[in-house]
Amino acid sequence: MRSILSVVFVGMLFAQVNDPYLNNNLPNPYRTVRDWAELPKGMTWPAITGALEGPDGNVYVLGRCNENSCAGRKEPAVMVYSSAGKLVNSWGSGLFNFPHGFAFDREGNLWISDGQAGEGKGNQVFKFTRDGKLLMTLGKAGGAGAGTDGFDQPTSIAIAANGDIFVSEGHAPSYGNSRIMKFSKDGKLLKVIGKKGRNPGEFMGPHGLFFDSRGRLFVADRGNNRIQILDQEGRFLDEWRQFGRPSGLFITKDDTLYVADSESWGPDEPGWKKGIRIGSAKSGKVTAFIEDMESTTEDHSGAEAVGVDSQGNVYGGVVRRKMLEKHVRAK
Fold first, then answer.
1. Domain around 268
2. Which of 10, 17, 119, 240 suits 275 as a labelling partner, its CA being 20 to 30 A distant?
3. What residues contact 261, with CB distance under 8 A and at least 6 apart?
4. What is the pLDDT of residues 275-289, one digit of tens each?
C-alpha cells in the first residue's frame, strides 16, 4: 500500500510541476496590507529588496534609498520597524550602490550584498550588527571579474549552521558570473560552486539562497525557472519547477517554503502567474498562492524578496512598484 501511495504522490507532484493552472489556482489564506509602515521623514518608498524579522522581534527592511538605487543618495538603506509598523531605527546611508542580498546569521548579525559597482564601492558583501556597526567585508570595492578575488553582482547570502558563508553571483545572467562562492566564517574562500549553464548544478543568475532544517542549500535559479537543491559541498541533489520562476526564498523552522515569483507570465515562463507560492521544503508540494495584484502583466512585478515573522505574517519586498507588502493570515 505504501508503494502505491508513493507512486500516486509522485504522479501528483509531477502534474503540479508541469501544469501552471494547478499552481495558479491554489488557496490564498492571507489578506494583504499595504502602507502599513511609516518612513523616515522626507523619504518616499524605494524598491524594497529584503524584509526579515530579527531576534528582537522587529522587522528589518532593506531598500534602495530612492527609486531603485542608492548611488549618490543619502537616504538610509536599512529601516527597522516594530510589528505594528512604527519606525524604530534606520541606518546605512551612503554605504551602498545597489543593496540586494539580505540575511541574518545565527548570532543575529545582518549580511547585505551590494550588487553594482560605482563611485569606488559596490560588488561587496558586508556583515553588520543589527544597529549598523560594520564587522566584516568580503570582496574588493568595485571589483568584478571571473576570478576568485572579487564579486561580480553578488545577489544573495546564506549562512550555514557552522558559520560558512555562501554568496551567489550573477544578477544579469547574459553576461558575467553565475555561480556560488563558499567562504569560511572568517572570510577565507573555500570553493567556487557551479558555473553558467542549464544543466544540474549550473546556474543562470542565481538570485536567492536559503538553508532548510537539514542544511540543504536551496537556490533560486531564476534564469533557469527552477529551484536547485544542493548539499554544502555544492553537489546537486534535486531541482523543482513547481514554484514558478523564483526570485526570493524563505524557509521556516518547520520547513515551510515561501517562494517569491516576480517574473512569470512573460515569455520566459508563460502561463504562470506572479506571486508568492507556499509549500513544503521536504516534499516539494505547493499548497498555497498569494497572487500578486499584477499577476498577469509581462512587466516585472510583485515581490522579489520574501520573509516570514514569528506570527506567520508574510512580507513581500516589491521592486518595480516600490512597496513593502504585509500578508496577514485571514481569520
1. 2-329
2. 10
3. 243, 244, 245, 246, 247, 272, 274, 275, 276, 277, 302
4. 999 999 999 999 999
